[in-house]
User: Fold this.
Amino acid sequence: MSSVPNVVRVALDLESIDPALERMLTDKNEIDRWSIPESTKRKASTMVEYTLKARFPTFDASEKSVENGVLYVASDEADFPRWKQVAMQGFKFDLVFSDVAHSIDVMRRETDYLIAYEALADEFVVMWD
Assistant:
């Protein structure tokens, strides 16, 4: 996926970014930090942007460089209004991999927010864990 040019990857997860993944990224810029009193998340929630830089060999033995954005939001799954903040920045999800709490009510709420905040691309795929 890192070879696709001109895209921004957006991740929303309860956990902070994995250190191994973060080492692959550059230009770290923390956009926001907040706490949710009733959250199960022990650390503060964060919204951080990065740059993913990659080089790939091509068929003619040259190399192709790709530079893309990554937005990583670490927050409680109940913090769906944070998705509005992401959507208001113009991001549209074309792939949603959801491993949100295994509850039909939470899954419905997640879907309702994706639709209400117009956070889905014209063509998209949703996968539930």
